[in-house]
Predict the structure.
Amino acid sequence: MTDIIIPIKHLSAAKTRLACQLSPDKRAGLVLAMLQDLLTTITGIGHRRIWIVTSDRTVVQTVRRFNVSWVPETRARGYNAAVTLGIASVPAGSDIAIVPGDIPLAKPDEIARLIAPTDPSRPTVRLVPSRDRQGTNGLFMSANARIEPGFGPGSFKGHTRRAMARHLEPTNLEAPGMALDIDTPADLLDLSACAGTGVTGRYLLGMGLADDHDRYDRGAA
């Protein structure tokens, strides 16, 4: 079974590219809503442990009911440093998946394909591209196939190159629900059109950013 790592920035620094539309409190609320939807989806899938890497105790308190493990950041050093800290916390010999916390439309079958059991004799790397195919919205590494995380612009090609450098042919997974991560006003607009009845959908509806959710079916748990 797979350990899942989800890095979350301190809420005070959350989603700054949405500052033109949302106040700091509303951006923080959106992050928490999206994370809860993602964890609800993951909870129904076989996995080992979920590791939340964050320095924000509000995040930890909000997701405590999901029985997650907290990896505290003493100082924010960037997303990849948080990923590395999470990986170091996972017991040796475990398969690992890293997913962002802002993919509330992720569907159970998509997560299940990302973290599916592997043949121990076959090192395995799986990648889920963002919808522009520039970023990485899911990285799976079997216990015998570790590559250095390099999330950020161009990371999908970067992770592919790093895997190939280790003679590993990565499996690319097409996962439309996971492909939409929320960073820009355009992303938020798209999310508002199909957020469904989860925590995120209700949050957006409460802010007047989404239509009546009965019109939509998110399809996730």
